[in-house]
Design goal:
The chain is an alpha/beta fold. The chain has 2 domains: about 270 residues, Aldehyde Dehydrogenase, Chain A, domain 1, CATH 3.40.605.10; about 180 residues, Aldehyde Dehydrogenase, Chain A, domain 2, CATH 3.40.309. Helix content is about 40%, strand content about 20%. The protein has a 7-stranded mixed sheet, with helices on both faces. Helix 14 links the parallel strand 17 and strand 18.
Length: about 475
């Protein structure tokens, strides 16, 4: 771990880190003890005043150095992420590393243009100004599906704004966070970034409950979000929550079917469907439904799954045996419904690792579990709708509110639907596209707070009024 600028071994319970493609142990690490969590928060608290006092340009310089180091060691980072998560090496190297580097560089620039919203004389003889200042120590808890990218999304705006950070990565995927910590120990002042390893109920809970942690940022599931809120309420902490999704994909009858199938094949199954924005809940118009099911089934059946460095591999295994079992149970319960057809996939893959076949479920109804709950695996469902109003109503009939997409050749129809969808992001005639200049975050039970963009930088600051009497 990294505590107060020094790499140190944990003193707590041993954790086994697996390669999901083989089920073999990569290494064993010890989680942080309660004393080490205390030491990490204390280090961040000590470092805060000095880090916050730096000019935005100075903080930007540190972020740019981190970006350069990640880029220079991109191959090593990608290989480590690929092995620990099971994702294809090409995806980690070509898709994720460039986006991560860009995140650091974006916030290096954004730090220098964050400004107050107003200044002037609003009371005779007095001049007011608005400052946006950092909060203090931010406790960040990152998930296992995109470990290094989620680290970047969390620490870049926090550090750029002048906060210090204590990060706990998932106990299943800590390896790229550890590699980053080694770089941070060389680049950043001691205590500005601290890394503690461990399980959620022990180390994570200790970070969330600590009175000197002023804000908690979590990406995880709804149940974990509720626990964080309950704990944070005791010390009135700010919280920044991204709690999953069940992205609806509305396909109107006039949509470009080839583009729809190509899009869902890519964006419904990327990272083996272990993505909260995955295009997994498809609503198809009555005229396009049958052809969409047929062509999507054929396309998904051609997805190549396998180990990380196999030639042409597109998706890897699920993260764990437990996660694969969860996905399989969803499909089996759906298969037991008389109106549902599993048109391709739907089986656990024999052999080593935690592989599950890419799966299409047709004939799903709005009330079915497979439509309502997040599966978080390589499974998409297709539901037929009768009228546009029904599609919009069904899309909004969900506790989730993170991402959605609309597909139509009629831009007026698509824009009308997009304006009425209760989701933090709606794509039109595409899905899954993210850029650091635009915010990512949800509504409803998917949480609140934005990752990426100036909105994230604002989330990690507080607006303050300063008034001068003449």
């Amino acid at each position: 771990m990294l505590i107060d600028g020094k790499m140190t071994a944990g003193e707590g319970t041993a954790m086994t880190v697996l390669d999901p493609a083989t089920g073999e142990t990569i290494r064993t690490l010890a989680e942080a003890s309660a004393a080490q969590v205390e030491a990490a928060v204390a280090a961040a608290d000590r470092a805060f005043a000095g880090w916050a006092a730096l000019t935005p340009g100075d903080r930007a310089g540190y972020l740019l150095k981190l970006a350069d180091r990640i880029e220079a060691e991109g191959e090593a980072f990608a290989a480590l992420e690929s092995r620990n998560c099971g994702k294809p090496l090409a995806c980690a190297r070509d898709d994720e590393i460039p986006a991560i580097v860009d995140c650091f560089r974006y916030f290096a620039g954004a730090a220098r243009v964050l400004h107050g919203s107003a200044a002037g004389e609003y009371l005779a003889g007095h001049t007011s100004m608005i400052r946006r200042d950092p909060l203090g120590v931010v406790g960040s808890i990152a998930p296992w599906n995109y470990p290094l990218m989620m680290l970047a999304w969390k620490i870049c705006p926090a550090l750029a704004a002048g906060n210090t950070v204590v990060l706990k990565p998932s106990e299943q995927t800590p390896l790229t966070a550890l590699k980053f910590a080694e770089i941070a120990a060389e680049v950043l002042p001691a205590g500005v970034f601290n890394l503690v390893l461990g399980y959620g109920d022990s180390v994570g809970a200790g970070v969330v409950a600590h009175p000197k942690v002023r804000m908690v940022s979590l990406t995880g599931d709804i149940a974990t979000g509720r626990k964080v809120l309950e704990t944070a309420a005791r010390t009135i902490k700010r919280t920044h929550l991204e709690l999953g999704g069940k992205a609806p994909v509305i396909v109107f009858d006039d949509a470009d079917l080839e583009a729809v199938v190509e899009g869902i094949r890519a964006f419904g199954f990327y990272n083996a469907g272990q993505d909260c924005t995955a295009a997994c809940r498809i609503y198809a118009g009555p005229k396009i439904y049958d052809k969409l099911v047929a062509e999507l089934t054929s396309a998904v059946a051609s997805i190549k799954y396998g180990t990380q460095q196999e030639e042409g591999v597109e998706i890897g295994p699920l993260i764990s045996e437990r996660q694969r079992g969860r996905v399989a149970s969803f499909v089996e319960r759906a298969r037991a419904q008389g109106h549902i057809e599993v048109t391709t996939g739907g089986r656990v893959v024999d052999g080593p690792g935690f592989f599950y076949e890419p799966t299409v479920i047709a004939g799903a109804l709005q009330t079915d579990e497979i439509v309502q709950r997040e599966v978080f695996g390589p499974v998409v469902s297709v539901t037929r709708f009768a009228e546009p109003e029904q599609a919009i109503a069904w899309a909004n009939d969900s506790e989730y509110g993170l991402a959605s997409s609309v597909w139509s050749g009629n831009i007026g129809l698509a824009m009308n639907a997009a304006s009425r969808l209760q989701y933090g992001c709606t794509w039109i005639n595409t899905h899954f596209m993210l850029v650091n200049e635009m915010p990512h975050g949800g509504m409803k039970s998917s949480g609140y707070g934005k990752d990426m963009s100036m909105h994230a930088l604002e989330d990690y600051t507080v607006a303050r009024h300063v008034m001068i009497r003449h």
